[in-house]
Amino acid sequence: MIEVKNLKKGFEDKLVIKGVDATMQAGKCNLIIGSSGSGKTVFMKCLVGLFEPDEGEILYSGNDLVTMSDEEKKETRKQIGMLFQGSALFDSLTVEQNVMFPLDMFTKDSYQDKLKRVNEVLARVNLKDANKKFPAEISGGMKKRVGIARAIVLNPKYLFCDEPNSGLDPQTSLVIDQLIKELTTEYNITTVINTHDMNSVMEIGDNIIYMYQGHKEWEGNNKEIIFNKNEKLNSFIFASEFLKDAKDMRMLEVKGKIDNDRNMDELLNSDEDVLNS
Ligand SMILES: Nc1ncnc2c1ncn2[C@@H]1O[C@H](COP(=O)(O)OP(=O)(O)OP(=O)(O)O)[C@@H](O)[C@H]1O
Ligand SMILES: [Mg+2]
């Protein structure tokens, strides 16, 4: 679990994160959503220790990352895996070497042990025959999987993913989302994901934090988000007419006005007032 208390972070005279309180739960996918520039990446970089906050606490199992000793910080960082936006693989290293990199940095294991672990995680992300390939030779979805394999190779307690679906088609995005979700549950990881992707929100959003101009504007889960009454959040998630219509349909379904096997012709010919009831 990670507890964030009154987190503030600015650059020069501009405050970007304006006092955020949040709890990231273990074994859950904790999603940070919000429009471009709302502060998601800055927030995540504070959480992993890449930015030093101006104020506030970031408690890893009750221990504050901001004030802990360098030794404790190093130990905490070892428990953190991160999937960067765009995967951030080393172009000159093979898939195998990319995934082995954190083991080279943080362990004194033998080459054979490291290779065994690399092969385990590559198999876990369904990338068995890609060891000797270079990043330029594999697809975007495969690169994300290599990024995930590298992020979990040290058995992290905490996993951070900044826009894991950027640049992927909806089906590949779903595969990546499901993989992150499975790993989170399987290893009881506290996972934090920055995303714009509404499919991800609906599929894996156990705990969702909506950021608006550096504030936490709303918090809930993927069941609550559909019927939320927050105007700002609604204009963010239902930005298209199509999604607004889909929400109306879902409302009618929940109210029992239509059923799942609805006959569209019947519905379209029915009293229009039904949509306003
Ligand atoms: N290193 C920096 N120095 C100065 N300002 C920064 C820095 N990093 C981010 N900012 C500013 O902080 C604000 C929030 O940026 P951030 O990257 O966190 O947004 P975001 O929500 O992640 O957006 P996106 O969805 O586009 O990734 C922006 O106004 C940005 O210009
Ligand atoms: Mg960002």
Automatic annotation (TrEMBL):
Every ABC transporter domain range: 2-238
Pfam families referenced in this protein's UniProt entry, alphabetically: ABC_tran
An annotated Gene Ontology molecular function: ATP binding
Segments passing through the bilayer: none
SUPFAM superfamilies linked to this entry: P-loop containing nucleoside triphosphate hydrolases
PROSITE patterns in the cross-refs: ABC_TRANSPORTER_1 (PS00211), ABC_TRANSPORTER_2 (PS50893)
InterPro entries documented for this protein: AAA+_ATPase, ABC_transporter-like_ATP-bd, ABC_transporter-like_CS, P-loop_NTPase
Keywords: ATP-binding, Nucleotide-binding, Transport
Highest taxon in the source lineage: Bacteria
Protein name listed in UniProt: ATP-binding cassette domain-containing protein
